Amino acid sequence: MGHCKHRNNSPKQFCQDMAFVSNGKLAGVAARKLEDAESFAQKYDIEKTYQGYQALFDDPDIDIVYIATPHNFHYQNAYDALKAGKSVLCEKPITISSEESQKLSLFAKEQGLFLMEAMWTYFLPAIQQAKKWVKEGQIGKVKHIKADFGYPMPYDSQSRAYNRDLAGGCLLDMGIYPLAIANYFTDEPMTNLHVKSHFAPNGVDNDVIMLADGETRLTLATSFQCKLPNLAYIIGEDGYIVIPDFWRASECSLYKLDDEIDSFSDQRDSIGLNYEANAVGIAIQQQLIEHPLMTHEMSLRLQKQMEQVKSHF
To answer: Are residues 100 and 179 in the same domain?
Structure first.
């Protein structure tokens, strides 16, 4: 596996978790500056380093590329990797528009290559356990989904989080997680959407509340202003499920009224990115071009929903 790096934490965490992956290994790392790639490679015991991403894409020993550059570069990086014959695991959001998402999906299919948005949350055992409880009818018909994800990010118009040119803002950066968890537990479109948004001095969104109405009601929020509880509640007619820190969930609990009747903890030693990496390895061995748990259609759906939210800004 090759890897394009950027200054966020996720590449470091991803590389740490590759130690827990049995069907793949880190073969190379690319950065714009060779010395950056070299110091990163030393830390994570990566054999090869490349100056510039194209050199990595052109290496015949690389099967799949993990992309974790700033959001606005995802489309071009993923396109170039696919064009060079590599499968791609691309950090979320996979692109910054539904149009880009559609184009990328189409190109991956034309190339006959695997492409997936790195929605690692969907691959976590606790999230899958929660879904199992829902499927078993443990909470009855799902009526409400409440989820929020926020951390205080000090304002700096040049930082990746707030930089307009890098597609900054809390909706794309963190808000994709509450939307993703809602989509994992309901197939309904977001209807009668209400959005309350707040903006940093440069006009980038730094706090967003989303309410949607339907058979299942959604109450979702994301913020750069403060730490939110970062919980997901899946609430049904007969009970509810609580998932603490749902975006990186390691546990979940099942309630009937006030009583906790079941709970699950995965007791993992990893951060949790290994489940996604392992699943991608299996999918590529099976010669799939998308993963049934995180399809191209789901990526497109999330892009469209974020556009829907932005239209209310």
So the answer is: no
- E strand or H helix at 274, and its extent? helix 273-285
92 is catalytic: yes
* Pair 6, 100 in one domain: yes
Q: What is the pLDDT of residue 4?
A: 55
Give the residue numbers spanning the domain of 210. Answer: 125-265
In this prediction, residues 49-70 reach a mean pLDDT of 96
Could you tell me what percent of the chain has a pLDDT over 70?
A: 97
Number of domains in the chain: 2
* pLDDT at residue 38, as a whole number: 95
Residue 295 burial class via C-beta count within 10 angstroms: exposed 0-12, middle 13-18, buried 19 and up: middle
pLDDT tens digits for range 84-106: 999 999 999 999 999 999 999 99
Contacts of 305-309 with C-beta under 8 Å, sequence gap 24+, read 305/179, 305/183, 305/190, 306/93, 306/171, 306/172, 306/175, 306/176, 306/179, 307/97, 307/98, 308/190, 308/193, 309/171, 309/175, 309/179, 309/193, 309/195, 309/208, 309/210
pTM reported for the whole predicted model: 0.95
- We report the CATH number of the domain holding residue 73 as 3.40.50.720
Q: Which of 92, 103, 146, 304 is the catalytic position?
A: 92
Residue 289 lies in a domain: no
